[in-house]
Design goal:
There is one protein chain. By secondary structure, the chain is an all-beta fold. Helix content is about 0%, strand content about 55%. It has no helices and eleven strands. The strands form two sheets. Strands 2, 4, 5, 6, 9, 10 and 11 form a seven-stranded mixed sheet that branches. A four-stranded antiparallel sheet has the order 1-3-8-7, with no helix packed on it. Strand 9 and strand 10 form a beta hairpin. It is globular and about 40 Å long.
C-alpha cells in the first residue's frame, strides 16, 4: 500500500487549497478513504471520510461547510478541497486507509495558514 499526498503549502487566512492523495497497492475503489491532520503538540484527528463509492461523506465539526472530500476511482485518487482556511487549520495533513485492521498512512503534506 502506498499513499502519496500533495498540494499543501502556505496560504493566507480565507484562502483555499486542494490536497490530493494518490493511492496504489490495493483495490482503491472498494475502501473508505480518510483525511487526518496533526497540528504541533496535538493528537492526530480525523478531518473527513468518504466511502468507496463516494456517495457518502463525513466531516469533523470544525471543517463542516468549508472542506469537501471527493474521490476519483478511475485515478485512484482522493481529494480534499479546503476553502475559507483559518490559522487553526495549520497542520500536517495525512491520507489514510484502514485495510485488514491495519492503518496505512502517507508521508503527509504541510498546510500553513498565516498572513
Amino acid at each position: 500500500v502506498q499513499l502519496v499526498e500533495s498540494g499543501g503549502g502556505l496560504v493566507q487566512p480565507g484562502g483555499s487549497l486542494r490536497l490530493s492523495c494518490a493511492a496504489s497497492g490495493f483495490t482503491f475503489s472498494t475502501y473508505t478513504m480518510n483525511w487526518y491532520r496533526q497540528a504541533p503538540g496535538k493528537e492526530r484527528e480525523l478531518v473527513a471520510a468518504i466511502i468507496s463509492t463516494g456517495s457518502n461523506t463525513d466531516y469533523a465539526n470544525s471543517v463542516k461547510g468549508r472542506f469537501t472530500i471527493s474521490r476519483d476511482n478511475a485515478k485512484n485518487t482522493v481529494y480534499l478541497q479546503m476553502n475559507s482556511l483559518k490559522p487553526e487549520d495549520t497542520a500536517v495533513y495525512y491520507c489514510n486507509v484502514k485495510r485488514y485492521y491495519t492503518n496505512y498512512w502517507g508521508q503527509g503534506t504541510q498546510v500553513t495558514v498565516s498572513s
